[in-house]
Amino acid sequence: MRRRGWLGLGALALLGSVGLPYLLVQRLNLGLIREGRQEKRALALTFDDGPDPATTPAVLDALRGAGARATFFVIAPRAEAHPELIARTLAEGHEVEPHAARHVHAWVRTPWEAFLDPVRAARRVGALTRRSARLHRPPHGAYTLATVLGQRAAGVTGAHWTVEGRDWHPQSTPESVRRRVGALAHPGAVVVLHDAGPGARNTVPDLPGLLADLRGRGYALVPLGELDGAAPLTLRNLPRRLLGGLDRRGDRAGGVEPAGGRADNLFRLGAVRFALEGVTLADGTPVPRGTPAAELHLNSPLLVDIGLRRGLRLAPGDFRDLARDLQARPELRDARVIFGISTFAPLLALLGFESHPLPPAALRRLRPWSALVRRAYGTEGPMPEVRLSVVSREAFLERYGETVSGQ
Q: What is the pLDDT of residues 172-204, one digit of tens each?
């Protein structure tokens, strides 16, 4: 019995010191800064593990050439060994914040070491920058309860990310990092790359091209401390965070992808069989149940943040990406209609979609989910009716399409 009691206490201690911080902080990012608002087309570039005189100067050169600024999370001994790089980084308008005193995963530290590392890193890096540290990103973005307490003792806020370049992965290449960041970039994103260590081998060669790509898409590239709306995630924001994660899991399960392969597109698209009965288009064309179709999903976080008016201005351009997908993605080539079920039918009607009422049974099933989504994203006012928005493939391509080679 005594052994069982000790095992139980050990399990509770492990849950409290590692399990809960992993779930609530490391995964859900409660109390951490992980993104900004999406009204403005801006994102934050962050670089970990430097400085390194062999690679950091090339990163600074690329940023200067693109007119971009970033946040560097530095390892204290490396920063102390190369104060000239810290001075240059600050002089060129970048932020320098602590990453670690020793680059060790929090889970393999003693609690005392995990507590002390943010304190020591913040003090040592602050001595170099001549100002108090404000942000801290622990190695690997890993947390225990001691890490959280150490950040509080150091007076710093944890900084996570929304886009991971995975430049450190053995199978990554400079080209794959550039493609990955380009596909996942979206307004308000926090991007993590590396200016030192294994990740630098993939980030440095194609960084000028990546920056040019993002600039070409209209992004302002700013330090994390200047990203609009970047604030610690609170319980009030948690429903939106959870719903976003649920959406991503549903997309993976259903083969739903953002139009144009870009996370900043207003629309996502998946191949399905039309599930409703009794739908006839305005030109008299019936849409039988089981018709090959492309189901339209809205990028709700982006649309909520930018508002319907701006969404209406951006939608035609994003629909052109969607039109290319209809012709290029093999699973969508047989789709006869594009449809969506949402409360945004009035917006889609302005963009060429027909609006149809849903059968009462479907409406009863979908209305609670729509209400939950609105609450999660803080949408106020009376809830519009959930309706079917649908358009034929031919009509959509005539309005938004362009010839794709080989089609």
A: 999 999 999 999 999 999 999 999 999 999 999
194 is annotated as an active-site residue: yes
Domains, the chain: 21-232 (3.20.20.370), 237-400 (no CATH)
**Which position among 82, 136, 194, 297 bears the catalytic label?**
194
pLDDT on residue 375: 75
Of 297, 294, 288, nearest to 335 by C-alpha is 294
Provide the whole-model pTM: 0.90
Q: Which residue among the candidates 48, 52, 195, 318 is catalytic per the annotation?
A: 48
What's the rounded Cα separation, in Å, for the pair 256 and 249? 10
The answer to whether 48 is a known catalytic residue is yes
User: Which residue do the tokens 């990163």 mark?
Assistant: 59
Q: Please enumerate in sequence order all residues whose Cβ is within 8 A of that of 396, keeping only pairs 6 or more positions apart, or say none.
A: 319, 323, 326, 338, 352
Q: How far is CA 52 from the centre of its chain?
A: 28
Q: Is the pLDDT of residue 404 over 50?
A: no
Q: Using CA atoms, how far apart are residues 144 and 111, in angstroms rounded to an integer?
A: 8
Q: Which two tokens stand for residue 351?
A: 């963009």
pLDDT for 303: 85
Token pair listed for 325: 């997908």
